[in-house]
What does this fold into?
Amino acid sequence: MKKIFVISLVLLGVVACNNPEEAIKAYQQARTSMNVPSYQEKGDLSSLSVTPLLEMEPAEFAKTIGDFEKKYDSLLANTKNLPADFVANEKKNNAYYLLYFKSEYYLKHLDYAEEDAPIFKKIEEELSKVDTDNAADFDAYPSYKDLVSNLFKEKIRTYLRKYEFNDPWGKILADFNTLKSENIKKNLAFDLLEGISPISSEETNEALIALLKENTKDAELQQKDMLDYVISELNRLKAGQPFPPFEGVVDINDKPVSYKQLNLEGKAIFIDIWATYCPDCRKQLPALEELQQAYKGKPITFVSISVDRDKEAWKAMVKEKKLSGVHLYASPEVKKLFNNLYDLRNIPRFMAVDKDGKIVSINAPMPSDTEKMAQLMSTLGL
It folds into this structure.
């Protein structure tokens, strides 16, 4: 009966209690009774069903979040005898909570339509003002912890897009190291695991490994195993290791070809993994042609492997542009194998192998970088 009375008062916009303890209890009951997503006692958002909210159209989402905010503010304002410090705490908690959902929605709808841009720009502006280095709030508010995690993931995405071929993880690590709150750094550190890869510089990989080893001393066994696996994969693809041979590709006549069938023994190899739909790949074609002409007659073979979704588009471009070298095609299924075999994350990817079949660089410089290419060819003995 008492619960029904409290809910009724909420609907009227008033919760009246005789003392602070009762007021807090009534407020918490009333907030739980609202048709609004709410943290459980554990403060774990993962237990919530938020899909309907995140699937809304932008205008509907903005209105719904706005309605939530009004409900929270109204409940706080109309619950009598709440202690001032409790009210201040709840206002901050509610703000973080709604910002968390905005960050979730933003991350889910990054490819928004032009007509929806104003709504997303407003969310971007709000999120940009969040202080992501507040150690006290990180421990006190579960919603703030989730919000900071989301914003860090978005920052990683931004760096990867902006510095795709220029050691992006080195820049992400430098940004991470500006954080002063050790509890936040410890919590976010494992998000850097992906950065241990051939696309990162040797210096960046060493720094990331040291950081993650320090932060996984007290971690669960699963995290330690994941770190060990990533390090072993990095070592497998280091210079001096045997080059992992590929299979499953076909030539321009659809004839199956394996790495061994190319008869490349005693020759250096320069491999280009590319696709016709990739602008950065197409930009490198003229420089790659020049490179092949410059080393014509030398003991080096240039192998280009397309990972196009459309095989006919690849064939057409090779014939139309009269591209030099050995041209092979890897189907989407084979590309998945390449992802594991060479830690292939983006294209174009260039790889260099010496005459003994050993890796010289699993992430070689682009042909357009003439200075680095000259150094690479010198290392290959050419």
Residues 155 and 175 are 9 Å apart (CA to CA). The first strand starts at residue 249 and ends at 251.
